[in-house]
Amino acid sequence: MPIVELSGIRKTYGRGGFFRKQERFTVLRNVDLSLRAGECLGLVGRSGSGKSTLGRIMLGLESPDAGSVKILGQDVTGCTRLPEHIRRAVQVVFQDAIGSTNPRMTAGEIIAEPLRNFDKLQGTALRERVAELLELVGLSPDDAGKLPGRFSGGQLQRICIARALAPSPQVIVLDEAVSSLDMLIQAHILDLLDSLRRRYGTAYLFVTHDLRLVRRFCDRAFFMSDGNLHAFDPAKTVDMKGSKVLEELFNAILPPMPDAARRQGNSGESVAV
Amino acid sequence: MSSTPFLEVRDLQIHSASRELVSGVGFQAVQGRVLGLVGASGSGKSLTCLSVLDLLPKGLRMQGQICVQGVALEDQASRRAIRSSKVGMILQNPMSCFDPVFTIRTHFRETLAAHGMLSADFGQRMLDALREVGFAEPQSVPGLYPFQMSGGMLQRVMVALALILEAPFLIADEPTTDLDTVAQARVLDLLAGLKERHGLGMLLVTHDLGVIARLADDVAVMHGGMIIERGTVHEIFGNPQHEYTQRLIATHLEFSGYN
Lengths: 273, 259
Fold this sequence. Notes:
The complex is a heterodimer of chains A (273) and B (259). Chain A has 273 residues and is α/β, with parallel strands linked by helices. Helices cover 36% and strands 23% of the residues of chain A.
């Protein structure tokens, strides 16, 4: 049984309209997606293509205009407040770490929040679990007492990842979660997520615009364009001539070595910026 | 390399109340070349950049010497005076650098007025700057509000704002981290073009070695508040010496599927 099942999802936003008549803008047309235990699903596309909207619908943060959302076999379409066991099972890491942490709470309190709410942990047990989670993401247990303002962007993002891991969820939506981290930390976090997946069957929806990460991390992958999902094989990067969107993303992959870069730079000059 | 470096930082130290965040950092950057500063998050890359223009957050103190075109900037006022006139800066998050209630035109006018460079041909100079950063039809841009533009467009407007003051040197702090890959490639092409056409010098801070490979000529690697290794981009990629740099390069090549 899939953990999350989306079928026939359609979502339209009103755009503009502050000073003039709104125009309707359809970001998702008839999207079907299912996510099984232990699976990592990559979702790529340019910004504004509806990747994040799909993630938010999966989390129950937004309700679709049409279609149904099933989490753990239960239909939750249009629920304003999801049942507790589902809220616990589905966690998220957003791109904007500063915006998703409360500046008045210490790192320890931020990570402890899901543990207090879902696991009813207290006292020493709570502190030990927080310390363990901090170490898991490569931070020190001493960091628990610091406020978010004292961390760099990448460190704060790791605190958000620790918070998402805290209640041992079944699905994590990673919305550009690692793109602001440096590569060694990226590799560390991806290895960590990989091992959780093997051990506990955690599933991931990995939203990104970086094809390098999809190639490294995902079993199946989709790209979004014009509100539709198109499947592609993450391992194959040669066979991408078919789609304009994918080709564009593929051509924008940064060069591994400086020499190749200079050559690419020269040929790229003629293309309009 | 030219004989006098455009920007020289000597023995820079930055302290918070109790801790030394940056210790003994020094580098030279020349015009027409891009110096890349790489390192982990929290290694002091951004603080180093901010201290050059006296933009450090409250509560942090700096020591050390900063020279621009061979002239030492001893006090706060002199470091502030080079802002935008000699050294422009572009930051990571374009969305939060613009005021959402003002149009792009107002941003240009304000920037020029702040530096006493507002003149009658303001409109034309603004359009030229926008064309320079790759807007094919710049006439439509000044009337837009920041929220009507994408991150990649705003980042290019930010480069245009830095260019209009004709600063010969640019500090770019993670200029493409928040952009999608296609927009990132375009902004990097733009910066590479500016270097070639105008001989712009650049201090480029990033954590992505792909960006370094694309744009940088020289590289300094920061780790724990110090520069642990420096060299040309070919030396660093081809023959990294420090153990941390070696791991960084190896991970980067593995991610890029390069064997």
